[in-house]
Amino acid sequence: MTNVLSRRNFVRSTALGAAALAVSTDLSAPAQEHSSAYAASPFRLGLASYTFRNFTRAQMIGFMKQLVISTLNAKDVKDHLPMDPNEEATALSDYASAGVKLHAAGAIYFPKDEDADIRAKFEYCKRAGIQVIVAGDPAPETLPRLEKFVKEYGIAIAIHNHGPEDKLWKSPLDVLKAIKGMDSRIGCCIDVGHTVRAGTDVVQAIHEAGPRLLSIHMKDLTDFNSKESQVAVGDGIMPVRKIFEALIATNYKGFVDLEYEIYPDDPMPGVISSFAFMRGVFAGMQATTEG
Questions:
Q1: pLDDT by residue (tens digit) across 76-87?
Q2: Exposure pattern of 151-188 as b/e (b: 16+ CB <10 Å)?
Q3: Please, are residues 45 and 71 in contact by the beta-carbon 8 Å criterion?
């Protein structure tokens, strides 16, 4: 245990130094461009706006500048990405001015197996130029209708698993069984915390999903049986490096979005620490490769 903690502390201290240097860089630049370590990876780090659910869009944009993160999985929470077209247009203008790029929306819920309800949500994402909808709870009988809209709009659906409490999608493996044979743009959003709590090996799940993996929500836990044990990434037992290695091995080209759900009134310390640790893991991977 002492050796594990020492390695984590070394990675974190190295990463915090790197993060301090990165703060002065252009927000619009991809995270990987701040270090040669990132250039070796096909995927990018991003943020799930739910992390800042108690803060306004303007406040969140300010936090993103501090974090040197420019890519966002936006949610209709607070005023982050409102469903109303006029309010959404204002939000999109604010993000464009700040150099923030929206790559996903959600989680978005589909409680009705009806064209009108589903079309409204695809239109919402189309207006924002979003290519991936993170879907919270689509019932299996809704999937054929969703597939129809995926084909019409060219927008992917990534079904988000929610762990043992979820009646439908406990694990990404449940998603993979249900979507077998469907359009390749219907896939998984693997929430790593919920995945391990469902008793699924998250690294194995990434390999099994392969090209069906469309989104990642990153978090960390100190106990894989406890939802309440969430901590900053790097402070728990999540196999972060093995997750990153699996993403590279499977040529995952999407985003790894930090979804930090604790301390909603003061998330920045944990968010800063989480990004520093993840960037440090990248740096360590690059150093190992070069060595």
A1: 999 999 999 999
A2: eebebbbbbbbbbeebeebbbbbbbbebbeebeebbbb
A3: yes
